[in-house]
Amino acid sequence: MSEVESILIRRDEAGIATLTLNRPAARNALSVALMTEMETHLADIAKDRSVRVVVLGANGPAFCAGHDLKEMRALQSREEVAEVFALCSRVMRAVVRLPQPVIAKVHAMATAAGCQLVASCDLAYAAEGAKFATPGVNIGLFCSTPMVALSRAVGRKQAMEMLLSGHPINAGTAERWGLVNHVVAPESLDAEVASMARLIASKSSYTLKLGKEAFYRQLEMGLDDAYAHASQVMTENMLAADAAEGIDAFLDKRPPVWRGC
């Protein structure tokens, strides 16, 4: 399959892996084939020590329209439907559990599982015209799986407003609610995301992996357990080669040379 025909395009440069959803005619709806490709690529990236950060973008008029509803309606059994949602959940968990930070680059509408994908990423940048919605309620299908990521990215009242109304929110509202980090002019989106990706890629890959994993683990703990876990992580981090190099480089007023361990 040529790159032009690929439904998911991967490009690597200077420690940054860019994954681009490429079903523009279908508004990048998450078909089984596309989610399978995503799962495979994310598994490969997780093992690739040359990749320090991932950028997730899309081609066409939408970032992602959620599940492929035509494909879903053609399924014949409960087991087939359940497997599609299980596959989608695996993809979303893979984004969260990926050792490398993931930045969503949202140029246009992200709805339902597309909004879930944005919420699952570690960082998100949006163009001024982008919109976000969980509109399943409008077609009798509550966005229950998108709710998992959304409710962990924004406040309860904001999440419920989106889920119960189905109304889209604009990029500025998404920024205020915490669904995205920054909103930029459409012509500046690529440059802004690339700048942040390069900044993250300049850090120790070992430290990024350790910190990302600790962040998500402590979120689901009580306060005492969270501090205990974070203290263990800090101890491990402090004794790592990259921490020693980073501290020495800081004291010597020179750039660090990371070893990734």
From TrEMBL:
Q: Name one Pfam family in it.
A: ECH_1
Q: Name one GO molecular function term.
A: hydro-lyase activity
Specify the species: Paramagnetospirillum magnetotacticum MS-1
NCBIfam families registered for this protein in UniProt: PRK08139.1
Task: Set out the biological process GO terms recorded for this chain's protein.
Answer: fatty acid metabolic process
The record's family statement is: Belongs to the enoyl-CoA hydratase/isomerase family.
Q: Which keywords belong to this entry?
A: Fatty acid metabolism, Lipid metabolism, Transit peptide
Q: What is this protein called?
A: Enoyl-CoA hydratase domain-containing protein 3, mitochondrial
